[in-house]
Amino acid sequence: MATVLVVEDDRDIRDVLRRYLERAGYAVLSTGSGAEALGMIDAGGADLVLLDLGLPDIDGLEVLRAVHDRTQTPVLVLTARSELDDRIKGLSLGADDYVTKPFSPTEVVLRVGAILSRTQGSAADPDRDSYGDGRLVLDHSMRRAVVGDRELDLTATEWGVLVTLASVPGRPFSRYELVNRVRGYEFSGYERSIDSHVKNLRHKLGEDAPIVETVVGVGYRLGLRRDP
């Protein structure tokens, strides 16, 4: 049973989300405080965080940044901030998905399921793939990406983008296709959000010759061949 931590200052919304999540089979922790949420995350046990950005004690974006710095726990952001730039900022800080208020609790539960299926579903796949004469190694059973001798600290979405590109090396994937494969559905602003995730992924790959290449007018592709 996956555990979802709901961080939301509105008690009524917390209670509604708890009911829907528990009905879907999840264990639920909840708090209305950013500081308390960070303490609960540090203590472990949360498989996913539902994070409201409008918290009373700590700005939600700072909580998001801290979660991303401390753990690989995926984060689904809940907020009344509907401007596209705010959504992109949240995604660039490591959020795995974004829902603006008012939202449907059923939709939130579906998005939670989609994120957890990406981050936990690969454990049944023991395959290990290598690319570019061992330059990049993807261990699907452990959800690990290694470049050279460095293990990368990837968010769930960055991992999903990399694995999708690596599924057919050299084949261009459009931004629309990437967001649908990685998230399981389209959402507003998908082009800019994928660009932000690819930018972060490239920074972590840290190579001079890009492993993730831009295909002008199309999207992105993996610039390495799969090793035999």
CATH topology of the largest domain: Rossmann fold
Q: Let me know the average pLDDT.
A: 84
Poorly predicted runs are: 122-126
Strand composition percent: 15-25%
Largest sheet: 5 strands, parallel
Strand order of the largest sheet: 2-1-3-4-5
- Class of secondary structure makeup: alpha/beta
- Helix/strand order: EHEHEHEHEHEEEEHEHHEE
Top-tier CATH class of the largest domain: Alpha Beta
Quote the distance from N terminus to C terminus. Answer: 38 Å
- CATH-level-4 superfamily name of the largest domain: Response regulator
Could you tell me the radius of gyration in angstroms? Answer: 18 Å
Helix proportion range: 40-55%
Q: What's the number of structural domains?
A: 2
CATH architecture of the largest domain: 3-Layer(aba) Sandwich
From the spread of the alpha carbons, the general shape counts as elongated
Number of alpha- plus pi-helical segments = 8
Secondary structure: number of strands: 12
What are its keywords?
single chain; 228 residues; alpha/beta; Rossmann fold; Arc Repressor Mutant, subunit A; 2 domains; five-stranded parallel beta sheet; four-stranded antiparallel beta sheet; 8 helices; elongated
Secondary-structure topology with pairs:
Blueprint: E1 3-7, H1 11-23, E2 27-31, H2 34-42, E3 48-52, H3 60-70, E4 75-79, H4 84-92, E5 97-100, H5 105-120, E6 128-131, E7 136-139, E8 144-147, E9 150-151, H6 156-167, E10 173-174, H7 175-183, H8 190-205, E11 212-215, E12 219-222
Parallel strand pairs: 1-2, 1-3, 3-4, 4-5
Antiparallel strand pairs: 6-7, 7-8, 8-9, 10-12, 11-12
Helix pairs in contact: 1-5, 2-3, 4-8, 6-7, 6-8, 7-8
